[in-house]
Amino acid sequence: MDLPFTESYKIKMVEPIRKSTRKEREEWIKNAKFNLFNLRSEQVFIDLLTDSGTGAMSDRQWGAIMTGDESYAGSSSYYHLKETIKDVTGFEYFLPSHQGRAAENVLFSSLIKAGDLIPGNAHFDTTKGHIEFRHADAIDCTIKEAYDTTKEHPFKGNVDLDKLEHVLISNPKERIPMIIVTVTCNTAGGQPVSMQNLKDVYQMAKKYGITVIFDAARFAENAYFIKMREHGYRNKSIRDIVQEMFSYSDGMTMSSKKDGLVNIGGFMAFRKKEMVEKCSMHTIMYEGYITYGGMSGRDMNALAVGLQEVVEFDYLDTRIQQVKYLGDKLIEYGVPVQQPIGGHAVFVDAKRFLPHVPKDEYIAQTLAVELYLEGGVRGVEIGTLLADRDPHSRENRYPALELVRLAIPRRVYTNNHMHYVAAILKNVYDRRDQLKHGFSITHEAPILRHFTVELERVHKEASVRK
């Protein structure tokens, strides 16, 4: 008989988690102003808010921590990480940072000015935030298939080449400091980008003299999908696929808290020394000296080991099969999700789930709160709150998709936990017709509001008067 799927690791340490009562959760979420970010960790049973920095490190990583070199300049841990990055990505030059958005801050401070245009495939929230903070514009060039959650397409993270070329033709190249390609594309549902698309984007960029930067937080998961879905790659190793992927870019930013398999850290890496020279001043100003950049030596050591582990097929197969397990359960229960299932998370289609909730009452946030109330599961809204306001009109931006992301930490939960999450969602789905109203904002920040927003419920009577 065929053998069942099993994890490629065994557990050495456990952490207890507590089941709360609905009455407790109702009080906690109310005190949190209906913002899931404001909950304390002990108020959450299964935490799928993010896969960023929430994974479990391996025994080899914990061992590497003990040999970290904490020298301010020229740490041996820095050189160990530098050699590993070159080995895995092919990039010779790199600058560490304390996390991914810090790398974005350094890179964008060095290259982006007011009035610039930065095309790409559905920029991540902090990426767009950094761009708009500098009074530049992020231009979404994702393929249209990404915005139909019912459509099966193996590479929904792909860049639409016609859209991209229109941006490049219509604007002087001085206004386009870079093209950003996010692998995998988080905002579109953790969807991968094909190797052919990466190659086509790079060739087009070279034609117009534009730099290509990868937002490579989940580069290894992207490589896994190329291996499994793209013709000609099934017999290639993950490491070889990763090398080819990065050959179609000029540089990268990395939140190491994802595919670096660590709890903190990030970096930038480049093909040319001039890019490092442009960014070094801002690294020193914002992060620290160029050989530690906000990271401790022990964390650089752990990251070096994590980057080697993440390109092992067995690890990736275990990781992505668990995400698929949750997605398949939800599909079995009739819950609408982005299909095919992505790499790091399952994305529930809140518009199809809650068709009666008005769009100005934050559909995905309404579903995310209800999921928490039902069973103590914390996801995150990828919808109108995250889309923020248009920087020019200050009106809400209503994205094509309203999603609740269930991001699965690496090497943390079992498939029993995933089954529990699916059952909680099914319970909410079975009573979805009772959920007709959402939330209004009582307080918000001028940018990246979803992290600190405060909300109140919209009651039926108030909605009718409105």
Automatic annotation (TrEMBL):
CDD domains: Tnase_like (cd00617)
Residue positions, PTM N6-(pyridoxal phosphate)lysine: 258
One GO MF term: carbon-carbon lyase activity
Domain Aromatic amino acid beta-eliminating lyase/threonine aldolase: 47-423
One Pfam entry name: Beta_elim_lyase
Cofactor(s) the protein needs: pyridoxal 5'-phosphate
GO biological process annotation, one example: aromatic amino acid metabolic process
Keywords, comma-separated and alphabetical: Lyase, Pyridoxal phosphate
Family to which this protein belongs: Belongs to the beta-eliminating lyase family.
Full protein name: Tryptophanase
Native species: Prolixibacter bellariivorans
Origin organism lineage: Bacteria, Pseudomonadati, Bacteroidota, Bacteroidia, Marinilabiliales
